[in-house]
Amino acid sequence: MRKLPRLALSLVLVALIQLLPFSYSSAFAAESASAAEAPEAVTLTHVEAMAELKRLQIAQDEIKQQASGSSNNPKLDGLDDALRQLAADVDKLTATLTAQRAALQAQLDVLGPPPDAGTAKEAPAVARQRAELNARKAQLDEERKQTADSQENIANLKDQVAKLHRSQLRDQLALRSDSILNPQFWAPLIKRSAEDRERLGALRDEVVPLLALAWQPAQRVGTVLWLVFALAVWSLGRRLLERGAAWFCLTQLPETRLRRSALALAMALTTVLTTALAAQIVFSTFTRGYELTPEFQELIAQLGKLMMTSALIAGLGRALLCTKHPSWRLPALADPVALAMKPFPTVLAGLLLLAGTLELLSRLADTSVQVTLLGRGLVSLVVVLTIGAALLRANRVRTELAAAGERPEARATLAGLIHAAVTLVVIVSMVALLIGYISVARFLTYELVWFDIVLCTLYLLTQLTRDVCETMFSSAHRSGRVIKQLFGVDDSHLDQVSTVLSGIGASLLLLMAVLALLTGGFGSTPADLLNTLLTVLGGEKLRSLNIMPDRILNAVIALVVGIWLMRAVRRWLDQELLPKVCGEPGLRASLITLFSNVGYVLLVLLMLSLLGVKWENLAWIVSALSVGIGFGLQEIVKNFVSGLILLTERPVKVGDMVSLAGVEGDIRRINVRATEIQLGDRSTVIVPNSQLISQNLRNVTMSNSTQGVATLQLTFPLNIDPEEVRDLLLEAYRENEAILDIPAPSVTFSQLAPNGITLSVTGYVNSPRIAANTKSDLLFEILKRLRAADIALSVPQTLRLENTAAALGT
């Protein structure tokens, strides 16, 4: 009887489980009836969803084919419209599938989790319905995954079409339009076409609601406060940061040139940082609570880059001109010249921001060619007039200084070349604007602005690097003393480390500047430069000897920059590093020669790489050289190897006095093939390096002795008084000005022979190079004194044997 309640309870549970689907369907029908006025939800079967996905994929393939074959802007505009429509279809399909999956998940939630294995079994109808729902859910997940892939592919297609747009604009540099003097060029400012009004109106319809939302009565006070705060950050915050940086540089940094360079960098960075913070506040103020479209987000990103670039221009101008504190100015500019150029960086930054914003809006609205050229012309005209006015005003001030008798600032050759190049670009850009080549003028002016930014940044960072190294490794400051005590080095080693690190830092900065000029452009950020550099370094390898114009241009640029860099580094080695590392002039000359030879070989290899020459393609050259070396180049190779041995082992060095096979003189230069020896008559003998290695060589100055020896051997008759002759010889040596008192001259009885006695007299001089002249003077004086003392030298005697019998004929 106790089992009956349990059985009844089980039957009730089974009945409830069977009625759950019907109750859910009734509830769903009630919800549908209550939402009769809402749009009817679209339900797609698996077959219909897969068919729609296939259609979208076919449409994407067609757009790809059209994009690869399009060669003009109208076709690309049509592709943009097709991509927008395709993206809308994908979004619609994604929303439908998402809604269906949510409905299925709701049904599964009503059914609840499946029962455990230990409990009562689930009704067959419920289990079947659960399985069907799970299967359809898996299908919907797969379909949604495919729609997500379609969205990603469409985004990639948009990027590719945008790149095609930019590449075609670069290819259309030779497009000629109306001159800036022609009223038709400025016509879009007064009267725009219907298409341009429609596109600009669409952009206005997207921007105005954003501004209106931020200016609603509930948010108006907050918007005003945030804008005032942004203005305070940009103006007052910049001044406070500059004062704080000035206090830190003047009180915390050592009294060296590091204060000037650090303060200049701080002025530039504070301008950029406060501008970035103020711009971020403004953007956040107007975009809070508003969902931005991808196009508008791209506009804000590009506008942010433009603002940062303009801020950098203004910051670099203020940092390098430094009109408030002329003693802190880094470049050698006269005060009147700096004051005359003071307003131009700020004016250029503001006008570039305004004109660049107009160009960005025109690009976002996809206006006509005439409006686009108008925006480019405005940007180019702003840059040309501002930079041209700055150059004219600076030149006029320098002319006035020269006329007043004041000496203007000294200018290096490189600075003069840069000034001439900038002037030439300004003139060419203005001519291009006047004759209608707007795209050419815009390209030149943007490249000019980017070149000025990179050059000024390179100068500032180079000065900072040099000042940091000199201050950190100076024994006059705490850091240098700590390093000196920690590593146990002396002052000369600190100077060497400072020179090496500053040289390495300057070289790296120069390399980065060259890469920025080649891979970047106006409006580029450090992240953009890094991505472009990685793309360049990770590009496709050169595959054949395919000489192209762009490769030839890169090779020529590398050659010019490489030669200039080699000369600069060689000058730095000769004037800064090696005098501190090695005090011997001969070793310095040998090291500089070795560096030059290795550097030029590497430069040639770099040029071959830039030309596209693969090393395996030079195998036949290597084979031919090996055969030539085996037959005709043995001596050249031997001399080359000998030259390397001379430069490394240094048995002789530049400046040594040597004697080789009757040739005696000073070594002036050691090349990899031959050595130049200058004789006493100023003539030069070129000796192959192999002779210096393989033959007996007398190095007079190898022991670094500063004294030379003047030795004379004289033979006298046997009947002289040796002591009298000795005194006469010593007196002649002592009275000669070139003979040193210490060590004192000496006379040695060298030999006693039947024809006389041989006396050897020796004296020391200051240098081996004056020993020959001193010996000549001593011989004149000694012969004069011997004649006065009536002492004759021994006459050489010869013994001749004759056959007397043969002479008499007997």
Automatic annotation (TrEMBL):
UniProt keyword annotations, A-Z: Cell membrane, Coiled coil, Membrane, Signal, Transmembrane, Transmembrane helix
Q: Which residues form the DUF3772 domain?
A: 144-205
Q: Name one GO cellular component term.
A: plasma membrane
The record's section on Gene3D superfamilies has: 1.10.287.1260, 2.30.30.60, 3.30.70.100
Mechanosensitive ion channel MscS C-terminal domain residues are 712-792
The signal peptide stretch is 1-29
Question: Looking at the keywords, is tRNA processing present?
Answer: no
Coiled-coil zones? 46-96, 126-167
Question: Where does this protein reside within or beyond the cell?
Answer: Cell membrane
Topology relative to the membrane: Multi-pass membrane protein
Mechanosensitive ion channel MscS domain location, by residue? 636-701
- InterPro entries named in the record: DUF3772, LSM_dom_sf, MS_channel_C, MscS-like_channel, MscS_beta-dom_sf, MscS_channel_2nd, MscS_channel_C_sf, MscS_channel_TM-2
Q: Which GO terms describe its molecular function?
A: mechanosensitive monoatomic ion channel activity
**Superkingdom per UniProt:** Bacteria
Q: Where are the transmembrane segments?
A: 223-241, 262-283, 303-322, 373-392, 413-437, 443-462, 500-522, 552-569, 589-612, 618-637
Per the record, the similarity remark reads: Belongs to the MscS (TC 1.A.23) family.
Name listed for the protein in its UniProt record:
DUF3772 domain-containing protein
Organism field: Cupriavidus campinensis
